[in-house]
Write a structure and sequence with these properties.
Layout: H1 2-44, H2 54-71, H3 80-85, H4 94-118, H5 135-165, H6 167-182, H7 189-194, H8 197-220, H9 225-241, H10 244-247, H11 250-271
């Protein structure tokens, strides 16, 4: 009898783990299929990953699309309605939106200043305001980065996995997956020819660190998805405003990645690894 009770008790956490992991695994499979399929589509048409095309749209929105697909097969408290409802949960302290938007701009200014001070690059100005005619072109990446990615990475994967693994471990895992996904251009001939070891290294460093920072913003703001939408848009905006001689250089990209890494370490130390989450899962 004791053995039966013990087995039942030990099976319960395993069942909970499976219930948490299976939807995320399904999401990752759908995400991979969409991304690889879009890359193959782009290659077959001779397209360039830097140019706008239907295949690029599929890739850009694949994290959110994959989450919606999985949610279609789930019942309450999950499901599509709950997933989309997170977009409307915008009420939190205004300070979080300020940090999310201004933080990346501060990093951009520090990066330009560091490269100027070291003599590596001499930008004519720390930030470059886009021409009015270029604004519509910039809006696409700003919107896609937020609405296409964050609902999947933070609104789906981070939210679910951190209940079992804790916020920090989940953020690192999500950051690794995010990095691999972001290197999808290497599935195309143009991407393989252009992206080198430095690009791969700074991508992993920056996105794992950013995943930790975004997990903190998400949890500390009361699981407010719009805050991380603003943070992602803020980063893309900061990159668009940086001189190409800065952000387009290996030194500039690596400096930006190092700043996110420093911010991630500071957040981990300040929150003792909880990243603003009240859950004790995964914390020792």
């Amino acid at each position: 009898m004791n053995a039966t009770v013990s087995e039942t008790e030990s099976d319960s956490p395993r069942s909970a783990d499976r219930a948490t992991l299976l939807p995320v695994v399904a999401w990752a499979i759908v995400l991979s299929g969409l991304t690889v399929g879009a890359a193959a589509w782009l290659t077959s048409t001779g397209g360039d990953y830097r140019d706008f095309s239907p295949a690029i749209l599929v890739v850009a929105y694949s994290p959110a699309i994959a989450a919606i697909v999985v949610c279609c097969f789930e019942a309450r408290p999950y499901g599509v309605r709950a997933f989309l409802g997170a977009f409307l949960q915008w009420r939190t302290r205004p300070l979080w939106y300020v940090v999310a938007l201004i933080g990346p701009l501060v990093f951009a200014l520090i990066t330009a200043g560091a490269l100027f001070a070291s003599g590596t690059i001499t930008p004519s100005t720390p930030l470059v305001l886009p021409a009015v005619s270029a604004i519509p072109v910039l809006l696409g990446p700003l919107i896609a980065g937020s609405l296409g990615e964050e609902p999947g990475w933070r609104g789906f994967a981070q939210k679910r996995l951190q209940t079992r693994w804790g916020a920090l471990l989940t953020a690192v895992v999500v950051g690794v997956l995010w990095s691999v996904w972001h290197l999808w251009p290497m599935l195309t001939p143009v991407g393989r020819a252009e992206l080198g070891p430095v690009d791969v290294a700074q991508t992993f460093l920056r996105l794992i660190a950013t995943a930790v920072v975004y997990a903190w913003l998400y949890n500390a703001s009361g699981r407010c998805l719009p805050v991380v939408l603003v943070a992602h848009a803020g980063h893309n905006l900061a990159v668009d405003l940086m001189p190409s001689s800065v952000i387009g250089s290996g030194a500039g990209a690596m400096t930006m990645a190092a700043l996110y890494a420093a911010a991630a370490v500071a957040v981990v130390v300040a929150t003792r690894g909880r990243l603003g989450s009240s859950s004790k899962a995964g914390v020792r």
